[in-house]
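Progress against Task 2.4 (sequence-to-structure conversion) is shown through the following example record, which the project officer requested during the mid-term review.
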Amino acid sequence: MRFLAWSSSVRSGFPVFFRRPFSIPQSALSLHSPNRGFAIPFRSPYAGPIRLRSRGGVAMRVRLFVAVLAAACFLAGAVTAKPEVLSTLKPEHPRLIAGADDTARVKALIASDPDARALYDRIRQNAEALLSEPVMDYTPEDFRENAGVKTYVTLGKVREVVERIYTLATVYRIDGDRRFLDRARAELLNAATRESWNPIHFLDTAEMTHAVAIGYDWLYQDLSEDDRRTLRQAIIEKGFGPAKSAYTFHGLVPWGHWVMARHNWNQVCNGGLTIGALAIADEEPEIARYILNHAVASVKLPMAEFAPDGAWAEGPSYWSYATQYNVLMLAALKTALGHDFGLADSPGFSVTGFFRMNFGGPSGTAFNYADASGRLGADEQMYWLAREF
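Structure tokens generated for the chain above:
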């Protein structure tokens, strides 16, 4: 018996399907470790979840389905539940990335430092401009088709909403002007009432979870209980619902390939979900524990890729995206729990900032190897890396 196998993901970007399947003998397939699922007789940095198609009859397809289902159940038990994961949770809000003490410190800095004042004035100008903008229209910006499955993408719009929430919530926390609170609230409720957060392109889901969670946490004291309930329910149903099936079945669901990936999708998806879990952990501890246990276990895979010297195989652009969410995840864990489960000690991560310092040339562009562009981003995560290491 022979099988046809193809990869459903590459190390970066949207999952693609090789159009020309390749054959491997049945003897080469085996149930492997809990972390690898099916083993194949080669290792490639571009190999993702493996899907199988048999040339045999119905009976062979049934046996294959049972084997795959058994593997999924086996993988589902690979992460051990740890009830103590929330034992050090900071009870008050805000607790994600910037707490109340940070707000007081920033206010004092703005009052005493001209450069800080100038930077804040620019942020406030951006917030003022948002007051006259309508809430986001999530009409799909792009359609893609893979293996006959049509997928729509709203990632650019979701990213803009992440920026809107950070901008509006920051200015409200500094100034206390309720216009910014009301505008942020409108944006949050608009996001929460979307029919779905587009899990088929899970980056959309993860970044939407991130945006709503930051708004929920940073504005918690000034949101009504009804608003909090609406936002919590959206995070649970539209963010964590598809995340649970991804963590359970991995590549067997169309949006689950990132769980075992060693590229930027993993950090972005686990980072957004972690921020969501920490935001609502006091009110919804059971689902928060589940998400945190799985996210921490999963993100170790791409973090191992920083070894030994902090370089990143996907090139500069995806280094920026990967480390942005990697740092957001670690920062949220540290501010909410007081620790990051040792993730920052992953070999190579402490020196990855030097990689960023050296992949830009005197032309002002990056050495764009892999599937990266030549553009150099702002990479604000460098401030966190400099402070931590």
